[in-house]
Amino acid sequence: MKAMGTDPRILSLAAEVAISPEQNVPVILLKLKEIINNTPFGSSELKKVKQDIYCYDLIRYCLLVLSQDCSRIQGGWTTISQLTQILSHCCVGLEPGEDAEEFYNELLPSAAENFLVLGRQLQTCFINAAKGEEKDALLHFFEIVTDSLFWLLGGHVQLIQNVLRSDHFLHLLQTDNVQVGSTVMTMLQNILQISSGDLLRIEGKTLHSILDEVVFKLLSTPSPVIRSTATRLLLLMAESHQEILILLRLSACYKGLRSLLNKQEPGTEFSQELRQLIGLLSPKVYQEVEEQKLHQAACLIQAYWKGFQTRKRLKKLPSAVITLQRSFRSKRTKMLLKLSRQKEEEDRRLQLQLQRQRAMRLSRELRLSMLEIVHPGQVEKHNREIEEKSALIIQKHWRGYRERKNFCQQRPSLVEYKAAVTLQRAALKFLAKCRKKKKLFAPWQGLRELTDACRVELKQQVDDYIRRHPGSEVSGVINRELHSQAQERLQHYFMGRALEERAQQHREALTARINTNIEQLMKAPSLKEAEGKEPELFLSRSRPVAAKAKQAHLNTLKHIQAPWWKKLGEEARDEIDIPKDELSIELGTLFIGGTKPP
Predict the structure, then answer these.
(1) Which pLDDT tens digit goes with each residue over 288-316?
(2) Which segments cross the bilayer (predicted)?
(3) Residue 2 contacts residue 54 (beta carbons within 8 Å)
(4) pTM
(5) Angstrom distance (rounded) from CA 274 to CA 261
(6) Sequence-distant contacts of 134-140: CB under 8 A, at least 24 apart
(7) Is 82 within 8 Å of 118 (Cβ atoms)?
(8) Do 184 and 146 form a contact (C-beta atoms < 8 A)?
(9) DSSP string, 201-220
């Protein structure tokens, strides 16, 4: 979406880029530099110009041009260096709006990578150049590219990690050329001054490579410019991060670094920075750094522990206050309730006393009035009758109290007796079933041994039976048929006996259930006195019984509600056949059986 109120210069430039051939686009994009320079720095107008440049994709055109081969671009490195300046100035201070994610995650990392690639190409051209003028020009272009990169990193600090992790930056740092190496290390020093914390966020291998290259340039390069820049850079890294200082002091890779630094020529321009670096690497300073580090760690641990304890107490404080308030309020409520009960008891006691006094006064007045009415000769008789009635009332109340007390004392024993009877009945049934099963599944124990006299007697009985019941001669086929029929009948008998036993057990279970229901109904109170779940005792689990009870209830209800003249001459009968359609009464509060619980 294009921004409203676009600068006409940007609009005409974007149109010219769109209609121009590809080889003329870099030269046309250089006009952006004039537009940016003519706009006041830091003003809202400059921000609007940058937003218009981004909206019309002129920044992407600059990136595409920088990614092309420099030999195909008009103006060569001059055009490229100016485009890097334009790109860095456009990206810094730009507010992308809706496309912020694409701008920060794709466009900016791509621009930084393109700057590093251009730096490597300029480094290669500078090393391969033969003429001094050409080298000076290439070095100037290289400095412009590095300055543009530093400007971009200053506006977007999150790109520093991408630059430090890049292989192109490491190759730029590893150059042997004095001028290029000095420029790169100066840029690294400026970057670390902006944000030194990003140096520890990169991988350990990359960090070791950077440290190795800086130490190598410090110790092996004869140029004082490189050595001074490397010394300042190493001193900045050691002072900013204790981890790097410990690494330089204890790592086997940098063993003997302090002795080699002591051998450097004194009296140089960077001798002060060198002495500071040697002092940092000395054991005393290292010990102080370690103690300081331990002190900071102890302070941090104490701070975390004290904060934890304080937060814990603060968390418990509301609950403690709430508990205290709850206990105080409950105690106060109990005291108020106790006082109110005492007051109610006193009021009740006073009312009872007043009622008794009134009753005594009324009774005395009644007696006096009766004595006035009764004839003087009948007073003794009247008093005797009153005493007899009083004695009868007292005896009646006393006997009722005594019987109720005896009944309450005997009730647990009655319940225990009924429970014992029920348990005995169930135990006897269980033992009878066990004996029946033992008889049914008892193993065959064989026949008893017969004596000679028993054998003679049995033989005589058999002979007498055969003599009285002579049998007809039957063939073997008929005998086998009779034997198979006998076996079938015997098998049928045994199979039927098991079914009969199961049916008998079912009948006994139903009988026991009916007896239990009858006992529960006998013990249950009346429907008027029933409370809670006691009405459930009147429910029946048998649907036929429930249906019969419901029909009888409906018949009785209809008979009771019938007018008296319909009942004249009616004989008592068991059932009254009344169709259900004629009944229109709400039965929600009556007994309805046969409903099984879900």
Answers:
(1) 666 777 888 888 999 999 999 998 888 88
(2) none
(3) no
(4) 0.45
(5) 8
(6) 137/77, 138/77, 139/179, 139/180, 139/183, 140/81
(7) no
(8) yes
(9) TS-HHHHHHHHHHHHHHHHH
